[in-house]
Fold this protein.
Amino acid sequence: MVHKDYYEVLGLVQGAQRADIDKAYRKLSLHNHPDRSRDPAAKETFALVAEAYDTLSNPARKAIYDRFGYHGLLNGAPNDSNGFTDPYVFHGDAQKVFQAFFGTENPFQDLFPASDEYGLTNQHELEGQRTRKVQDAAIERELLLTLEEVFLGCVKKMKMTRKVLSDDGYTTVLKDKLFTIHVQPGWKEGTRITFAKDGDQGPNSVPADVVFVVKYKPHARFVRQGNNLVHTCPVSLSDALTGCILELMTLDGRKLSLPVNDIIMPGYQMTVPGEGMPHGKEGHRGDLVVRFNVAFPKSLTEDKKALLRQALA
C-alpha cells in the first residue's frame, strides 16, 4: 500500500501550522494548475497538492495524520469512544479544493487578460504577457488642509489601502500603507504630491503612482486669492462714516489692530502689506486685503433723519 507524506508534498516539516499550510498550497496550486503549466506532471501534482491540503487543513484529519499517519486516515484510528474514526478517502476533486480556497473558480481573472477559462491560452502567451508590463493609471486622493496648516506648514499622514503581491508572486492581499507628507508653507490648491509606483501591485503591471492633490478647507475669516489673504469685515454705517479700529486674528495667532480713518465707500478696501500667504524660498509673503460689508439700518426715526440731514448738509 502506498504511503503518502502530505507534509513532503507541500514542502513542509512535520507538524507545520495552518498559516504555513495555506501559504504552501497557495503557491503550489497556482504553479501546478494544469491550465497554466506545461509540465506533463502538472495535473497529477495539482491533484496530490489538493489532497494534501484537504487533509492537513482540517484539524481533525490533521490530528489523526500527525499521530497515526496515512494508514490511520485510510483505515480509521482509535477515538475517545473506544471505537474508530471513519476512514478518510480524498474525494478526488482537486478543482473543488482550489475553488474553495480562493473563493472563485478563476483567481487569475484579475491577474491576466482573459483569453480562455483561466485567462490564458498557453504558457508561451503567458511569458509574452509578462514582458509587456504597463503602468496603471495614477490614483488621486484629496489632501484637505486648513489655511493655518498651509500658512505655517505641517506634516500630514495619509492612510490608503492597496493591493500587495503575495509571496507566490501572483495573488494579492489588501494592506494599509501610511504616506507621510511634509506640507510646505504657502502650498496652493491643486499642488500635487506624487509617490511613484506606490499604488496597487499586480504580477502583470507596473504599480500606479499615488498622487495627493491639495484642497483647502473653508475658513471662517479668510479666503486665499493668489498670494493674498482676503478678509471681509462687517461694519456699521456709523463706523463706515466716522472711522473705527478693526481687530483681526492672523493665521499664526497674532492680533492685528488696524485703524480705519477713511470713509468706507462702496468698493473700498484696505491693504496691509506682508500679512498674506508665504510664497517663494526667500520667505516672501503676499498682502492682507480687508474688504467691508456696511450694515445699513433697516429704518430711521424722523428725528434721526433730521440729524443726518443736518450733519451731512
In short: The radius of gyration is 36 Å. Residues 113-122, 124-130 have pLDDT under 50 and may be disordered. Residues 115 and 121 are 6 Å apart (CA to CA). The longest strand covers residues 154-165.
